[in-house]
Design a protein that fits this description.
The structure holds two protein chains of two kinds. Chain A is of the alpha/beta class. Chain A is built from nine helices and ten strands. In chain B, helix 2 packs across helix 4. The chains are: A alpha/beta, B mainly alpha. Chains A and B meet through helix 6 and helix 8 of A and helix 2, helix 3 and helix 4 of B.
């Protein structure tokens, strides 16, 4: 029951993560540390390196300089933008497959959510629309029983109903023993949901901003604050 | 004066700073709250709860919604709702009864006192805004009468 033992011991982050593709530096000594569970956003413009950062944090991409605080990748779930499903797999098969591998994988919860969204378990995963696939990846990640869940643009391609479902599921699941790290450039969706956020720009991560504090102090919405910060940095 | 007539409500709507959180009934009976952006969600939830209590929609001794349920209804972080509840608890408007949950205080006298405090505060803020528009006390009374007659 590694999962139960690990709960309440969030210590996630990285130090001086440096990554480049060819001559282009994407992450330039990005550092952060999170010691409490909750919903945390990583905001950044397109191409800021959000996905690259998540790839590194999930252990998918080991080719970088710097270090990670947490190395137990089996306790990290990642809903990536890319698909890693075997091509001929049905939803049902995938759920059974995952359930045998990871303890805490809540197959029944996922089945319930899929039924509510009218997604048949018999469908081949590749045949799902991109929105439904995104939603399925989201469900698999958040109900995976892991204490760190990385979500890359979880709202992309989702219709209004599914966006609502994603929001409600996060509200249901969030607690101090579980960290949801979410990248997005659609801040509106997350604004009321996040405990705090980082801004990724120029390859580096900002300090951690507490959402309530920022709005209270600046009298601006998180989105306005983000926009101004990003624009200042880009000048 | 004629042109002013009938415009008072519009005028008031512009000036009035009473924090309006609009209820909009969405399919079925799920309440959708429209939050103001420039104010923390926390303070907006606190003032929403106060309005529910002082407006008598949540009565003395009534159980209030569990944190997660309320958070889901408002689509906000449960932490924020938890903070709002503890702020209200600090003001002794709500009390925790062991594991049963949280309830509006049974102390009606205290509730009425707090209600008056709250209303006075809101009215003062309103008055200040009116003064900025060059409206004196008498005119405010006149405006209020006008609205009441409608």
């Amino acid at each position: 029951m590694a999962y139960e033992e690990n709960r309440g011991k969030i210590n996630f982050g990285g130090e001086l993560i440096y990554k480049r593709y060819g001559k282009k530096t994407v992450l330039n000594n990005a550092s952060f540390r999170i010691e409490r569970g909750g919903i945390v956003g990583i905001f950044g413009l397109n191409g800021a390196g959000k996905t690259t950062l998540l790839n590194i944090l999930s252990g998918l991409d080991g080719n970088f300089k710097g270090s990670l605080l947490k190395t137990d990748f089996t306790d990290v779930a990642y809903a990536s933008q890319k698909d890693f499903f075997p091509p001929d797999m049905r939803i049902k098969d995938y759920l059974n497959f995952e359930a045998t591998f990871s303890e805490g994988f809540d197959k029944e919860k996922i089945r319930g959510k899929l039924a509510a969204a009218k997604i048949s378990e018999k469908s081949f995963i590749f045949s799902l629309s991109s929105g439904l696939k995104q939603y399925f990846k989201f469900l698999s990640a958040v109900f995976g029983g892991k204490s760190v869940v990385l979500l890359d643009e979880p709202f992309s391609n989702l219709d209004v109903n599914l966006r609502g479902e994603v929001v409600n599921t996060l509200i249901d699941l969030t607690d101090e023993n579980r960290l949801f790290l979410i990248t997005t450039h659609e801040i509106k969706e997350l604004e009321r949901l996040i405990d705090g956020f980082f801004i990724l720009s120029g390859g580096a991560l900002s300090e951690y901003y507490d959402a309530e504090e920022i709005v209270g102090k600046s009298g601006k919405s998180v989105e306005e604050f983000y926009r101004e910060t990003v624009n200042e940095k880009n000048i | 004066m004629k042109s002013f007539k009938g415009r008072a409500p519009v005028f008031l709507a512009h000036c009035c700073i009473i924090r309006v959180i609009q209820y909009r009934k969405n399919k079925g009976d799920i309440f959708v709250l429209e939050f103001k952006n420039n104010e923390t969600i926390l303070s907006q939830i606190i003032s929403l709860m106060k309005k529910e209590i002082f407006g008598g929609r949540l009565v003395a001794g009534q159980k209030i919604k569990p944190i997660r349920e309320f958070a889901a209804e408002l689509s906000v972080n449960p932490n924020t709702v938890a903070k709002a509840y503890s702020a209200l608890e600090e003001e002794r408007l709500i009390v925790t009864d062991g594991t049963l949950g949280k309830f509006v205080t049974q102390n009606r006298e205290y509730l009425m006192k707090k209600r008056e405090e709250y209303l006075l505060g809101e009215a003062e803020e309103f008055m200040e805004e009116m003064e900025k528009c060059g409206v004196g006390k008498e005119e405010v009374v006149w405006l209020m009468k006008k609205i009441a007659e409608k």
